[in-house]
From TrEMBL:
GO terms for molecular function: intramolecular phosphotransferase activity; metal ion binding. Its cofactor is Mg(2+). The lineage of its organism: Bacteria, Bacillati, Actinomycetota, Coriobacteriia, Coriobacteriales. InterPro entries: A-D-PHexomutase_a/b/a-I, A-D-PHexomutase_a/b/a-I/II/III, A-D-PHexomutase_a/b/a-II, A-D-PHexomutase_a/b/a-III, A-D-PHexomutase_C_sf, Alpha-D-phosphohexomutase_SF. Keywords: Isomerase, Magnesium, Metal-binding, Phosphoprotein. This is Phosphoglucomutase. It comes from Thermophilibacter immobilis. The keyword Isomerase applies.
Amino acid sequence: MDRQPDIIRFGNDGWHARFDDGFSEANVVRVVDALGLLWSDDAPGATIYVGYDRRHDSSVLAREAAGVLSSFGLRACVSDVACPTPAVAWSCAQDEAALGTLVITASERSCEYGGILVRAADGGPCPRSFLDEVEQTISSSPSKQRGLIEKRDLMGPYMAALTSFVDAGALAAARPRVVVDPMFGAGSGHLAALLTAVGCDVVEIHVEPHEDFDGIHPAPQDPWADACEQAVVAQGAALGVLLDGDGDRAAVVDEHGSILPARLLVPLVMGHLVEGHGATGRVVTTLTCSALVSRQAARLGCEMVSVPVGFPRIYREVLEGDVILGAEEYGGICVPAHLHERDGLLVALLAVELLATSGVPMSQLVSELESKIGSMRYTRRDVRLDPAVTQAFRNVLPGLNPPDVAGRVPVEVSHADGLRLQFEDDSWVLMRPSRAGALVRVYAEAPSECERDELLEGACDIVRQGV
């Protein structure tokens, strides 16, 4: 009996699957067939930029995908080296003849995963309606037709654009020692070369090829950031910067080897854009972002817009214009003056520039920030439930309005994305059922860990008892 073809479902950016559970050359071709058909119908002869990360067979699959796209009459330009997703997106956004991008990457997922990420003509996310149409167009078997492909240097122009965004002279004068950790991902070699070119003293780790990522996940957070944190201290570095697997997200480590949480990194970058670069306009964040982000926006005189979780919602605000920065709760940052998407290399470069131009250690910059906007303690917990119970909680959520949480009475209630309860001192909790699994994500933030944990436990109790 013939094997039934794998069912392929797209997330917000594209398709991801385990190598042992569906991510195969045949299925990659099936997906690219659908993309090629839709793109060629929309704009015959348009250019599509193709990139790839350093995972198993990514370069081979990228060339195969480019050949498939070319067979539909599209001009397929594939990167000549493994490169970060933002480089592919930026290249597409600069080319008026380009219609979209395709990147063979699974971003920050573990080495067991492969993926295809798809972006629109401006480098931003594709509409959900387009991804749904791709799903519906995927055939049961891969095509055999292949066309000619064109290799292209995507990194050179992109790196030049990044360099032009910052004060290279100030960086060269300060010559900070920086530990760069690309986590064996697509940023390997590139960010280190960029910082070296502008005068930094760079130590790079986790750069050699490792298809299994030497046991770490390419996610810039603890515990996977331990080696970078230790290297900063051992090398006497002023800063450490990490990139995730495809380079669209960065994290920063201070001179003491402490990683900066997103609740601090986002306000620091925002402040540097406004006070260091003279940027003006709005700040867009998800409802799950720290209150410190809104406090910093208020301090800087920036209008603050909060949207439900998901970068496509931030992107819709970016398209309206007048946006300085868009940020997600886990640290993905978009600077629309550069690209309508997240770019970890730019964030890393801005952090180094801030350090160089301020003339003080990163830990002092954090202390000065907290003296201006205060401090908060933030956390998230996933409450796992039976699928039926999770669905029942989704059903009752629109009418759920608890009078208090841990004895604290909310001053504002929002059902825009789950249930978010705001309290007088900027403390808040949010209960949000996952779209992808049988669990409810519970977020809490308060001025102290004790208050935060009380709110968290109270909200988790509401989730468990809410049905």
